[in-house]
Amino acid sequence: MSDGQTAGLMAAGQPEPRRERKKVGLGTALALMLVGSIVTGSVVGVTVSAMQDSSTNVSNSLEQPSAQTVNQVDQPGSVENVAQAVLPAVVSIRTPQAEGSGSIISSDGLVLTNHHVAAPGERSGLQVTLNDGSTHRADFVASDAATDIAVIKIRNVSDLPTLQFGDSTTLSVGQQVVAVGAPLGLSSTVTSGIVSAMNRPVRASQEGGESSLIDAVQTDAAINPGNSGGPLVDMQGHLVGMNSMIASLSQGSGEEAGSIGLGFAIPSNFAKRVADQLVNTGKAEQPKLEATVLFNQEGNGALIRDVIPGGAADKAGLKPGDVVTKLGDRRIDSADSLIAAVRSHEFGETVQLTVTDSQGNNERTVEATLSSE
């Protein structure tokens, strides 16, 4: 991914340094939205009045009884049904430096969230607000900056509702999904949309010079700062992704970025594997090709710079100067694309790589067995 592509990507909910932050208060933001609504309503009213004829019968909604709103909560697959099922298992997370969201994954208080949400609270403290409005202290368990995944634990709780993981490999483009979280601190916010794309390699910079790379589920469900760490669920209420990043048109003006319909979530299968490692060992490892790669400036693909002697790439016959253009049926167009694709596979899995020379010639296929855990 080029610098130009990564510049517009940011971690949703990640705070900017205080001295550089220029922020519109929530009250002001809402006021601006209301002004826009009033102006639009006025224009529409004028247009309708201009079209009316003195002989035309006027229908006035103020003089008619209100229609009964149909509640679809009991209808399986409705957004209302999903919201009712999911909201009790979603929390808001606050630290002195950040705000975000999280999914309860154990009844005794384990919460899945983003590294960039939880890490600031490792020493300064974490506060969690449940859907019922109660607040609790929480402890930092572990996190992994490279994948932007973290686990925290709410203190002194039991019998909490939990979210069930879904299988993110079965997601399809166009499938309806629901995002839940606390954008701009507005807890228990529900938005809906579709899966816009799969397997998007997305890298975002974090504080301290760290960066994370995820093989993302792209969605047009509205995701804003504060949604980070919250769940993306299917229409059965299963957690299929963790909302982590948004694309922004902002070019460093200092204004808070907002949704433009390009949100990115960590696939649930990947998040589950990393979270399990964090809980059990305190750290996370990923399958590796055991080679260093660079963006291929001569064309598409990932350029092999070095291979580790005896590693997966070496055993597969890869050499410095080779260019990987496919992993299985998936096209590889950058170094990040290859890294993300490898991470999405399992430890010890054998994958097929399509390889050319640096000029794009002499294509061949090799098999590589990824590193074990």
Automatic annotation (TrEMBL):
Membrane-spanning intervals of the chain: 24-51
GO biological process: proteolysis
Coiled coil regions in record: none
Keywords attached to this entry: Hydrolase, Membrane, Protease, Serine protease, Transmembrane, Transmembrane helix
Renumbered residue ranges of the record's region Disordered: 1-21
Record-linked Pfam families: PDZ_2, Trypsin_2
Entry-linked InterPro entries: Chloro_Bact_Ser_Proteases, PDZ, PDZ_sf, Peptidase_S1_PA, Peptidase_S1_PA_chymotrypsin, Peptidase_S1C
Domain named PDZ: residues: 278-359
A single GO molecular function term of this UniProt record: serine-type endopeptidase activity
Protein family (similarity comment): Belongs to the peptidase S1C family.
Name of the protein in question: Trypsin-like peptidase domain-containing protein
Native source organism of the sequence: Corynebacterium uropygiale
